[in-house]
Amino acid sequence: MAALEELIPSDPELRTIHGAYLLIGGFVVLFSLVALFIKERLYLSEAFVATALGIVVGPKVLNLFDPNTFSDSTIHRSLLEVTRVVLVIQCMAAGVSLPGNYVYKEKLSLAMLLGPVMLWMWLVSALGLHLILGLDLVQSLVIGATITPTDPILANSIVQGKFAEKHIPVHVRLLLSGESAANDGLGLPLLLLPLFLSQNESVGPAIGSFLWRVVIYQVLMAVAIGAIVGFAAQRALKFAETSNMMDKESIFSFSIALGLAIMGGLSMLGSDDILASFVAGTILTWDHWFNTHLRDLPFQESIDLLLNLGYFVLFGLLIPWETYDTMPSLSVWRLILLAVWVIFLRRLPAVMLLRRWIPAIHSTREAVFAGWFGPIGGGAIFYSMLAVVYFDQPAYPMYPIVSFMVLCSIVVHGGTVSIFHLGITRRNTYRDWKQAGNDRLASLRATLKGMTAPATQRQPGVPEVTVVMESGRRVDNIGSDGGPEVEVHYDGNDSPGVGRSDDHLVS
């Protein structure tokens, strides 16, 4: 019995870690059993449910797991590295999931979102921090930079799955997925620019050092290394496959391992590992070869589920509730006011103003959707911990502010999917009712004007083909084979029934 007791860890930190394994693993198992019901009937995102569980079992409610058993430095470093791994794998998955040379084809749309829109998001966030919380200019710019990138984990929980495939146009889903992965890597220059300016007495040397150490070494070198590694990996995969030396399952794990290898190498060099991973994933699928070989494997969906659930349970555990209301500038009402400012002004106005120069957005409704769903998540946590661990920025008030913004984004962006669904349902119901001939007022007006057209006679055996429309325009690139999606209906007499086109509307 003594030997058995020795196997049971007495160290509270070790017991907490083992309990976290049990919690996260058990939750993923249970959630998998009811995932379809939660997402398709309740319209709740995985991140919302996982965060709620973390809050319930954390010190604020049941206190089953208390992260305060660890030191602050241990929590900060552990959270930084866990978030790094999650983001690298997610950005690699996003790059791999984009069809072929999508980044090149939509270069103008992505350039607008990663340029003017991202700068707007940074400056508006910093302005809100300065006006509402009373932070100084440098602190406002630094914290504003952390909440600027849209999170690929939360974004993919919105644009992936059956609901998104049915109601959100494919070009909008691809745009949001690609942007969220790319701007997570491009958030680093925004974070470091105010730090470089504040640590140098003169502007000239600060800008010169920033251009060399950040723009060239951090960003451009990461892009170059990611492109070279992605191209080499693509060639190696093709050679191994044509030589019959690897199977499809190995291709699946290859991309994840490649992302981890890039993360380790670029981190040791002090360069932008997240951006390099996304670039490598994009180059890996540039000629559609990789997409073709993974067509039947739910690559990104599987990764999303595991990362969303595990990571946001951890986030729910680590929300620093005890720090709120400890000083006037961090009172709850001020943080709620800041959240309203950020959610409504950080992204939506910029996308609406620039939508004419974003070719991937085809209508005002799509612009509203793309502007609204710019969630704050893992990227914000990563950059806040990066500033604390590597640049000696105080964790307080940075992490309390960032964690509150992430929590509000999870609740708001995860919950408003159902609002878009209700709008779609009402629109589709009215459209179907009118198409069925029940719009009596329209029929009466047509009759009075003598404009009632005779019924069209269809020949038996000839199918009626309807083309799927998006926002009132014909779309030729929807469907698994890249062609138009059609519906053909037959009745029991082998004659065509009534075909109906389904508008893929965003709101």
The dominant shape is globular
Mean pLDDT figure: 80
List unreliable stretches of 5+ residues. 424-441, 451-507
Helix and strand content put the structural class at: mainly alpha
Series of secondary-structure elements, N-terminal to C-terminal: HHHHHHHHHHHHHHHHHHHHHHHEEEE
Q: Rg from C-alpha positions?
A: 25 Å
Q: Which sequence of strands runs across the widest sheet?
A: 1-4
Q: Describe the largest sheet.
A: 2 strands, antiparallel
Head-to-tail CA distance between termini: 64 Å
Strand content: under 5%
Helix segment tally: 23
Helix % is 55-70%
Number of strands: 4
Question: How would you characterize this protein structure?
Answer:
- With 507 residues, the protein is mostly helical.
- It contains 23 helices and four strands.
- Helices cover 69% and strands 2% of the residues.
- A hairpin with a 2-residue loop joins strand 2 and strand 3.
- Helix 7 (137-146) packs antiparallel against helix 11.
- Mean pLDDT is 80; it is low at 424-441 and 451-507.
- The strands form two sheets. A two-stranded antiparallel ribbon has the order 1-4. Strands 2-3 form a two-stranded antiparallel ribbon.
Condensed summary:
69% of the residues lie in helices and 2% in strands. By secondary structure, it is mainly α.
Attribute tags:
507 residues, mainly alpha, two-stranded antiparallel ribbon, 23 helices
